[in-house]
Amino acid sequence: MNDSLKVLEWVAAALSLWCVWLAAKNKILNWPISMLASIVYAYVFYSNRFYSESYLQAAFFAFQSYGWWYWSNLNPQKSNQNINHISFKSALYLGLFFLLGYLLWYSTYTHFFKDARFPLVDVFLTVLSITALYMQAKRWIEHWYLWILADIIYVPMFYLGDQKITAGLYFVFIGLAYFGLQQWKKEKAAQGGLS
What we know:
This protein is mainly alpha-helical. It has helices spanning 3-24, 30-47, 51-71, 88-112, 119-137, 143-160, 164-190.
């Protein structure tokens, strides 16, 4: 990677770290900060041939816009937005979405991007991340487990893909995701729910 791309990677990493910290603290500001990070990372990933990650940033941007609205005062049902557990039915639908999304995106992705890096893993992490982000926007506490799994897999992928700054960031994300899980459990308990 060239020097200007490394500078942009640092900027994207700093924004990403900030937004995950804010999400762990259940702060609405996580959404606009994460949108900025997605814009910068889309360029960095595409330039480094992690095409699926680049397209993931576009999906992130859409979900982040939804999450920002869903958590905001513009949402007429905002007062009902407590942290919850995912229902069994929703988990089944999301599992089906994940499987179909993976198969469809993998076949499309490998057809169009022959020079992509680590497509099997990259596509898996893309679909897993979209699933986790949707769950985060719905305030389902289980999304943190998906982020922990994704972050663990992202570290070696980015390290081997010459994005060591991002690999380090995702290593930190493992701890932040665990911290976020604990914070959300405490907040759910304070709401009167079971952790």
